[in-house]
Amino acid sequence: MAYTCGKQCQFFNTHGYLILRSVLTSAEVQDLQQWAQEVHDWPLNAQGARVLCRTENYANYHEGFNALLRGPKLLDMLKQLAGEEMLLFKEKINYKLAGSGGFSPHIDSTAYTHIKDIKHLTILLAVDASNEMNGGLEVVDGSHVVNVPIGKDNCIESAWAEKQAWTSVNLEAGELLIFGSYLAHRSGANKSSSDRKAIYATYNCKREGNLHDAYYEDRRKIWPPTHLRVEGEEYAEGALRYGFGSPMLSVAMGKQMEV
Q1: Which parts of the chain sit beneath pLDDT 50?
Q2: Using one digit for the tens of pLDDT, what is the confidence trace for 53-82?
Q3: Which pLDDT score is estimated for 251?
Q4: What cofactors are annotated for this protein (predicted)?
């Protein structure tokens, strides 16, 4: 489907986010779900009852995802919203299992400025339906142009968050949300009986250079995947930079996994 801007760009600039419901074909949605399961099932250095909660840095190693996340369908949409060409900065698949917790209110820019202090655009692509019942994303309309107060834990100060009107983003499989790195957002617990997957692909302006590998090199040093961590090391700097707001931090080490 060809994407044209106009009123959608105006909405994005005013509200800080944009929902697009007819981007992928039914066949592409089936591919998306198959690919997400393939990445989920890649061999891991794990033993026991550990639960996989997220996979990152997989586009370079998966032909289908690489073609989608770096392909013209998504990049053309982002170019029109940003007014310039964009490059893939980072990508992850979140696996929100039934009964798992939500993410605290935050803005994404806090985790990015150590690379370069630039704005990013993120695509949330629903692999499965995402809604209030299963812990879908919630946003604060227009917060991308507000000075949102950030606490010492890198999350939004609770006093500010409690005063806001939070908008639930309900998506069916294959539908997507685009938002910037300064939009306040959060998610609740998955209160449904079904697990769900969601892809978050973040992009930076092409004029800033290809920052993908630099981002993951830094992340691997201070916040390595669980199976590569040294026993006894707390990784406090990495937790503050990359793990803020995450329910994974409330789970005892050895009961969750990031790859």
Answers
A1: 1, 45-49, 249-259
A2: 889 999 999 999 999 999 999 999 999 999
A3: 41
A4: Fe cation
Question: Is residue 156 a contact partner of residue 150, using CB atoms and an 8 Å limit?
Answer: yes
Calculate the alpha carbon distances from 114 to 95, 145, 219, 234 in Å: 26, 21, 11, 20
Please measure the distance between the N-terminal and C-terminal CA atoms of the chain and give it in whole angstroms.
33
Find residue 159's DSSP bridge partners: none
Burial level of 204, CB count in 10 A (0-12/13-18/19+)? buried
